[in-house]
Write a structure and sequence with these properties.
This protein is mainly β and about 675 residues long. About 10% of the residues lie in helices and about 35% in strands. The strands form six sheets. It has a 23-stranded parallel sheet that branches. Strands 4-7-10-13-16-19-22-25-27-29-32 form an eleven-stranded parallel sheet.
Length: about 675
């Protein structure tokens, strides 16, 4: 699709040059006199003669001649004016057509309903505009091509209700048309809160990319074509069989954020950055529960494939172990380079969890420089199958000759916790090796690590190492205990430079920095459980955050909430940032307030004019949005004060309208204010 932007026509600088008035000359004038004018006689076929002196007769003749000339000139002037009038009107109209139309105000909100063409809706959006998708299933693909917002005014496509707008590709018949596509020169696009599912399966060619969500840059082997794209709170499932994926960020896409998303169902990779640059996967959940095509390998929850500057922050990849059907690579994450010039480099993995897979994180042999791990958890499980070669049960397999670093990792229940297949020298510090068959294979050189309960440590210990029980309280916290170093643990502050030994995954990482925002409960847990159909059993000591709306006026948590997104056979509790009792939380049940200040109740509004409906709103925690309706039809939504809505008064004069303002707070509580206004006669 072309991304050419039509240039506005230049405004004309002049309108019409009317023809000049005809030059009349210096006409002779009648001499001033106080005597009465002489009477004239009409002589047929002769000049009119007045019985005066010869001089007077001459002047009369000349004057009459010029009088006739004036009449003739006036006649022709009138003709010229009459002829020029339609021409002038034509030119005025032409000028209006050539003038650039007045700019439409940015930040407008539009709505879509199931059955609408989403592509058509998107094509009308300008920078700062928002398209809200009402609840329901959309079988029309969400294709965003050549649309450009700005850094301060992105184009937003968002579900009105989180997770209730579903884009379904099952009825798409065209190839290369996924349920969600962003590319063709698009920039500063935000998509939020939708469900994307069922990539079209009309083409059996494994090279046809029938993905579910496809962010595509270009085919020129360069960066560009999809820039500053944000995907937030989206669930995606069921790509086409074979080499197809759930979230594919590829072919030159740059500055892409995939945040609080989840993927499951059929497909090769759940999340993949392929030949892309500056991609962040943040708090994303990759779950294996189906594979119907075994011709493509490897298969993984996350893949960094020929991409540079990729960051994974607080991601979870789980459950390939139960779906292994062949002697193949089923990994939590696959990291490798692609064809030149696409060498994977500068990959950062922070606060992430890889559990219940045949393989953990796999750093392939052609991976480039600077792979950095910090605060990560590897629990891959000991193998019980009969597979001979590829499933090896490694927590972290380092296959590149390029160095990197691993700090504050926790390796539990792996065949080999850390497997260094090429003898490369990544630094390995402040890490825990617990209950592995072999802790380290081919030691690259480590320090400040704890080895406990392993069948074999696989390496000689050094002076800074420990061999102590870390003190994880699995009775209380289940496997969630491995995600933080207990306050009473001998590993607390025992690492290099006074750091802990082991992973701490209880706060969010954002833009590469550890924040003080609690990671638990998992941001998308309720949606994932509802859509995935996960059965939940909450531990007695947790789960208090599951009451009412889940929004609290207090930001601390009394005890450890449960989570099922990191499961064993029985759901297990997870830690929070607060490991000691704090005062009980108080749910926010206070309703907000709203008041329409313009127009006044029972006032008149002028028919055919635009009235700005204005409302004030407040809440004890925070106002989420204000909706304006006229006669029960939603007109506008405003999320920032002052809350306003432009309304053009329609209909005949003397009509009474009901105007409603409805306010929502962050907890979902709401309130309304209703007035009436009558159009003036």
């Amino acid at each position: 699709m072309s991304n050419n932007i039509e240039q506005p026509l230049r405004k004309r600088t002049s309108l019409i040059n009317y023809p000049p008035q005809p030059y009349m000359g210096d006409l002779p004038t009648r001499p001033l006199t106080t005597e009465p004018l002489p009477q004239r006689q009409h002589v047929p076929n002769e000049s009119r003669i007045v019985r005066t002196s010869d001089d007077t007769i001459f002047k009369e003749k000349v004057s009459d001649a010029f009088s006739s000339s004036r009449k003739l000139v006036s006649f022709f002037s009138l003709v010229i004016i009459l002829l020029a009038l339609p021409v002038s009107l034509f030119l005025v109209n032409l000028q209006r057509q050539f003038q650039q139309p007045a700019a439409r105000a940015a930040g407008s909100t539009y709505y879509a309903n199931p059955g609408d063409s989403l592509a058509s809706k998107v094509n009308s959006l300008q920078p700062g505009d928002t398209l809200l998708l009402n609840d329901g299933v959309y079988y029309s693909p969400l294709t965003i091509s050549g649309k450009q917002g700005t850094a301060t005014a992105p184009i937003t496509i968002k579900a009105v209700n989180d997770g209730k707008a579903i884009v379904d590709g099952s009825q798409i018949t065209a190839t290369y048309t996924p349920p969600v596509f962003i590319g063709g020169g698009s920039a500063y696009i935000d998509v939020e809160g939708i469900v994307a599912r069922n990539a079209p399966q009309s083409n059996t060619d494994p090279n046809v990319n029938e993905n579910v969500i496809y962010v595509y840059g270009n085919s020129n082997n360069t960066l560009g074509g999809a820039d500053h794209i944000t995907l937030r709170r989206i669930t995606a499932y069921n790509a086409a069989p074979g080499n197809h994926h759930l979230f594919m960020i590829s072919f030159g896409a740059t500055n892409v954020l995939v945040e609080d998303c989840a993927a499951w169902g059929d497909g090769r990779y759940r999340f993949i950055a392929y030949q892309a640059d500056h991609v962040t996967f943040r708090r994303d959940w990759a779950y294996w529960d189906n594979i119907t095509d075994t011709n493509t390998e490897p298969r993984s929850g996350f893949s960094v494939y020929g991409a540079t500057n990729v960051t994974l922050e607080n991601v979870i990849a789980i459950n390939t172990i139960s779906k292994q059907t062949d002697d193949n690579y089923y990994t939590a994450t696959w990291q490798t380079s692609a064809n030149a010039p696409w060498t994977t480099s500068n990959t950062t993995i922070l606060g992430s969890m890889f559990y219940n897979n045949w393989e953990g994180w796999w750093v392939n042999g052609d991976t480039g420089v600077n792979t950095q791990f910090k605060d990560d958890y590897f629990d891959i499980q000991k193998l019980t199958g009969t597979y001979t070669t590829k499933p090896q049960g490694n927590g972290l397999m380092w296959g590149t000759t390029n160095g990197g670093s691993i700090t504050n990792a926790t390796f539990t229940n792996n065949v080999q916790g850390f497997y260094n297949s090429h003898g490369a020298p990544p630094s390995l510090t402040n890490s825990v090796f617990l209950n592995n068959t072999s802790a380290i294979n081919n030691d690259p050189g480590h320090s400040y690590s704890d080895f406990y309960g392993n069948t074999s440590n696989g390496t000689a210990l050094v002076a800074t190492d420990k061999q102590v029980n870390p003190g994880y309280d699995t009775t209380t916290y289940g496997r969630g205990a491995y995600l933080f170093v207990p306050n009473n643990s001998p590993l607390k502050g025992a690492g290099a430079n006074g750091a802990d030994i082991g992973a701490n995954i209880i706060y969010e990482y954002v833009d590469g920095q550890l924040t003080n925002t609690p990671l638990w409960p998992w941001p998308m847990e309720d949606r994932i459980m509802a859509e995935k159909g996960i059965s939940v059993t909450y531990a007695a000591n947790g789960g208090i955050w599951k009451t009412l709306s889940g929004i609290y006026s207090n930001t601390t948590i009394t005890s450890t909430p449960t989570s099922t997104l990191f499961p064993t056979n029985t759901p297990t509790p997870f830690p929070t940032n607060t490991l000691t009792p704090t005062p009980p939380l108080v749910p926010d049940t206070t309703s907000p307030t709203v008041n329409i200040t313009n127009p006044l109740n029972a006032s008149t509004v002028k028919h055919g004019t635009t009235v700005t409906i204005t409302a004030t709103a407040s809440d004890n925690v925070g106002v989420s949005k204000v909706e304006f309706s006229v006669n029960n039809s939603l007109l506008c939504t405003d999320t920032t004060a002052p809350y306003t809505c432009a309304w053009t008064v329609p209909g005949k004069r003397g009509t009474t309208y009901t105007i409603t303002a409805k306010v929502y707070d962050e907890a979902g509580n709401s309130a309304i204010n209703i007035i009436t206004a009558t159009s003036s006669r």
